[in-house]
Amino acid sequence: MTRTADADRIVAALYERAGTLHRTAVTRRVPGRDLTPVIDSILSSPLTGFPLMLLTLGLVIWVTVAGANYPSEVLARAFQAGERVLAAALSAVGAPAWAGGFLLDGVYRGLAWVIAVMLPPMAIFFPCFTLLEDLGYLPRIAFSLDAVFKKVGACGRQALTMGMGLGCNAAGVVSCRIIDSPRERMTAILTNVFTVCNGRFPALITLAAVFAGGAGAGRSAAGGGAAAALVVTAVVLTGAVVTLAVSWLLSRTLLRGAPSFFVLELPPFRRPRLGQVLVRSVLDRTLFVLGRAVTVAAPAGGLVWVLANTSVGGSTLLAHLAGWLGPAGAALGLDGFILAAFVLGLPANEIVLPILLMSYLSTGAMVEVGSLEALGSILAANGWTGLTALCFMLFSLLHWPCATTLLTIRKETMSARWTAAAALLPTAVAAVVCAAVAAAGRLLGVG
Amino acid sequence: MASDGLFRTGPRAASGSHPVVALAGNPNTGKSTVFNALTGLAQHTGNWPGKTVRTAWGTARHRGRLYTLVDLPGTYSLLAGSAEEEVASDFLCHGRPDATVVVADATALERNLNLVLQVLEVTGKVVVLLNLIDEARRKGYDIDVGVLAEGLGVPVVPAVARDGRGLPELMDTVAALCDGSLVTHPRPVVYPPDVEESLRRLEARLAGRLPRGAPLRWLAVRALCGDARVLRLLAGPAPPPGSPAPAGPAPPPGSPLPSPGFSPVVRPRPAVSRTSPETKRSAGP
Q1: Mutate to test the interface with A, among B47, B78, B280 (most CBs of A within 10 A)
Q2: Is residue B248 situated within a structural domain?
Q3: Pick from A110, A59, A73: which is nearest to A295 by CA?
Q4: Beta-carbon separation of B110 and A182 below 8 A
Q5: B86 with B38, same domain?
Q6: What would the pLDDT profile of A30-69 be if each residue is shown by its tens digit?
Q7: Closest to B268 (Cβ–Cβ): which among A7, A146, A180?
C-alpha cells in the first residue's frame, strides 16, 4: 500500500521538522523540581490508584448528598409559598376547579419537584466535577481504567463519560464525543444509562436512608446521610460492573471489533481557577440540563394529574394502569404501582417517587414528603419489604433512559434504531436482574 | 464563497463584516482559556452542521474593532480523520479565516509544533500563541521566541493566558494580519523528493477542480494520506478549461456532511518515541 507508506513518510517529515525547530529554539536548563511524575505514579498504580478513585467518588457523592439537603428544603418551601400565591390568584380570577388542579397540582408541582430536587445536587455536583477536571485528575482516572475497559473491548475515556453521566445521562451521552472510534463511542452511549444520574440519586438516597437506616427508627437525618451515601456508592459501583459486563457483551455481538489506540495526554496538575469553574459549570452544564428537564417535567406533571383524576368504571386510569402492570411488577419484585410510576416517569426520573406516593395515597396530586418516618410507614403499609426496596433501587439503576436522554441519543447517533436499542437493552438487563434477585430473595425467604 | 453555506447557521453567519479569526490547538493547551478571556460571555455554542462536534464562536473587541473568534475543536493533528480533525481542517480550508491563532503548549512544544506545521500548510496567516510560558520556564525550558518565529516564518507571541498576559500582544498581531499590514512568509515543510513529486502532480489535478485560492498543497497532502473526500474529488471528471470552478470537497450547502459511520478509519499514527514524556499511550491490543 503506497498510500499508507506516503502518509507515514509525510507524518515523519512533519515530526522531523518539528524536532529540528524544537532543538534550535529550545534549550533545557537543569530541570526544576517537578512532582508531577511522582504524583502520577501514585495515582496510576493499581495499589493506590483504585482506592483513591473510590474515595474521590464516595466523597463527591457525600458532598452532593449532604450539601443538597438544605437548599432543597429551602427551595421546596419557596415553591409551596409560591403555590399558595398562585392558588389565590387563580381563585381571584374565578378559574374552574379542574383548571386549578391541572395547573397547580399537575404542572406546577411537577416543575417544583424537579427543580427543588434536582437543582441543588447539580449545582454542587457539576462544579465538583469541573474542579477535578481542571485539576487534571480526570484524565488520570481514564488512564488508570483504560486497561479494564480495554479488556471488555471499550475505550478508557468511557470512564470520563460515565463520570459525566453521574451528573446527567444526557450530558454523559453528549460527552461520548471525546471517544474517537465510532464503535467504542456507541458502546459508551448505550451503556451510559447504567451510571446513576442526579435525577435518580434523590430516590436512591431516600430509600437507602429509610431501609438501610433501619426504616428511619430513631436515626437523625445527618446520621442516616453517611449510611445512605455508602449504600448509594454501592449502587453506583454495581452500575459500573454492569457497564463493563454489557460493554463486553456488545463488543462481542452488535459492536464487534478490536479496541483502538488512543493517545491520552496527562496534563500537568494546575491550580483550578475557581471563578471560571463556577461560571462555566453553572452556565454550560447545570442550567442547560435543568432547562431540558423542566421542559419535559411540566407537561408530564399535567399528564399524571389527568391520569390520576379521570375515573373510568369506578377507578382512576392510573389504578387501571397499575392493575394491568401488576403481574409484571410482581415478577420483578416490585408491584403494579411502582412499575406504573417508572413508566410515567419516563420524561424525568426525579418524578418517579412522587408519582408513586401519589398513587399509594390516592390524593390525586403529587405530595411533598413530610419525613423519612412517614415515608417508611407509607411504603410498609403498601407491602414494601427490604427486598422491594432493593429491587426498586436495581430497577432504577438499570431501567430505560429518561426521555431527555433518549432524545439526546437520537441526536448524537442520528439513528432511530440505535435509540431503540438504547431503550430496550437496559430494560432487558433490568428485567433479568430484578427477576433473578426477586426469585432468589423469595427462595431465601427474605421477601 | 462556494462553501459559505456550510457555515450558514454558524460563525460565518454571525460574523457580519467582522474579520474571522480561527483558534486552533492541541487539547489541554489553554485554547478555551484564551477563547473565554477574549470573548468573555459574548459567545455562542452549537454543533457543526451535520456533525456531533461542539463548536463555540464569539465576539472579541480590540482597539475599537470587533473580531469573530471561532474556537475549533482541540486536535493533535489535521490529518487523522476523526470528526474533530475533519471539522478543524474543513474550517481552515473552506471557512477562509482572516487569521488563525494556533495555541501551543510551551511545556510540550515539539508535539505542538506538529500541528502548527500542518496549519501552516493550509494557511500562512497564522500567529502562534506560546501559552504556559511561565510553566515552561519553571520546568527549565528556555525558548528563544525570535529563533522559533524565524524558523516558522510566522509571528510567535509568548503568553500566560490564565492571567491574560500576552493576549493584548496577540490581538495586535491578529489585527495586523487581518488588515494586511503584517505579511508572513511561512516556510513549507520539505518532504522526500518522490513525495514532493506526487504532491506536485496532485496539485495540478486539483487546480482544475477547485476555486482559485484553495489550499491545493494541503489537499494534495490529504489525498496522499488517503483522505476519502479529496480522493473522491480527484476520481470525478475534470472540468473542461474555462468552465466555472466547482465547489471544493465540501458537500453542497445545506446537505449534511458524510458521517464517518462505522467504516474503519485509517489513521497515520505518530511515532510514540517522538512524543513528549508527558504523553502516555495506552497499550495496544
Answers
A1: B280
A2: no
A3: A110
A4: no
A5: yes
A6: 655 667 777 777 777 777 888 888 888 888 878 877 787 7
A7: A7
User: What pLDDT, in 10s, does the model give residues B216-273?
Assistant: 888 999 888 877 788 888 887 666 554 444 444 443 333 333 333 322 233 333 333 3
| pLDDT of amino acid B130 | 94
Cα–Cα distance for residue pair A382/A385, rounded to 1 Å: 9
Whether B259 is covered by a domain: the verdict is no
- The reply to whether B94 and B143 lie within a common domain is yes
- Number of domains chain A contains: 1
**Regarding beta strands B65-71 and B20-25, do their DSSP bridges make them parallel or antiparallel, or are they unpaired?**
parallel
Q: Are strands B156-158 and A311-312 parallel, antiparallel or unpaired?
A: unpaired
Q: How many domains does chain B have?
A: 2
Are B143 and B172 in a shared domain?
yes
Can you tell me the distance from the alpha carbon of A105 to that of A380, in angstroms, rounded to the nearest whole number?
25
Q: What is residue B258's predicted lDDT score, i.e. its pLDDT?
A: 34
The reply to whether residue B140 touches residue A25, judged by beta carbons under 8 angstroms, is no
B212 lies in the same domain as B143: no
Residue, of A341 and A372, whose pLDDT is higher? A341
Instruction: Report yes or no on B38 lying in a domain.
Output: yes
- The last residue of a domain, from among B131, B152, B179: B179
Is residue A421 one of the residues assigned to a domain?
Answer: yes
Helix (H) or strand (E) holding A376: helix A372-381
Find, in chain B, the residue whose alpha carbon is nearest to that of A19. Answer: B110
Q: Is residue B245 situated within a structural domain?
A: no
Residue A31 lies in a domain: no
CA dihedral A50, A51, A56, A60 (to 10 degrees): 110
Do B31 and B171 fall into the same domain? yes
Instruction: Give every CB contact of residue A156 below 8 A, 6+ residues apart in sequence.
Output: A142, A143, A145, A146, A147, A149, A150, A262, A264, B282
**Which of A195-199, A207-211, A326-330 has the weakest average pLDDT?**
A207-211
B110 with B207, same domain: the answer is: no
Spatial separation of the C-alpha atoms in residues B4 and B20, rounded to whole Å: 13
Task: For A92-113, write each residue's pLDDT tens digit.
Answer: 888 888 888 788 877 887 778 7
Domain that holds residue B199: 193-235
Q: Is A145 left (phi over 0), alpha (psi -120 to 50) or beta?
A: alpha
Cell numbers describing residue B109: 512544544
Chain A contacts in chain B segment 4-33 (CB below 8 A): 26-28, 33
Q: What does the angle CA A442 – CA A356 – CA A107 come to, to the nearest 5 degrees? A: 160
Distance between CA atoms of residues B15 and B68, nearest Å? 6
User: Whole domain around residue A333: which residue ranges?
Assistant: 42-257+274-443
Residue A371 in domain: yes
Q: What angle do CA A348, A353, A359 make, to 5 degrees?
A: 110
- Please tell me the predicted confidence (pLDDT) of residue A233: 84
User: What distance in Å separates the CA atoms of residue B9 and residue B48, rounded to the nearest whole number?
Assistant: 9
CB B107 within 8 Å of CB B141:
yes
pLDDT digits (tens, 9 = 90+) for A229-245: 788 888 989 999 999 99
Considering only CB atoms, which chain B residues are within 8 Å of A177?
52-54, 83
Q: Model confidence at A267, in pLDDT bands (50, 70, 90)?
A: low
Chain A residue numbers touching B82 (CB-CB < 8 A): 180
Q: How far apart are CA B91 and CA B123, in angstroms?
A: 11
Which among A331, A354, A296 has a CA at the least distance from the CA of A76? Answer: A354
Residues of A with Cβ-Cβ distance to B110 under 8 angstroms: 18-19, 22
Q: What is the mean pLDDT of residues B156-171?
A: 91
pTM of model > 0.90:
no
Average pLDDT for A209-222: 55
Same domain, B119 and B59: yes
With respect to residue A14, please indicate whether it lies within any of the assigned structural domains.
no
| B89 and B167 within one domain | yes
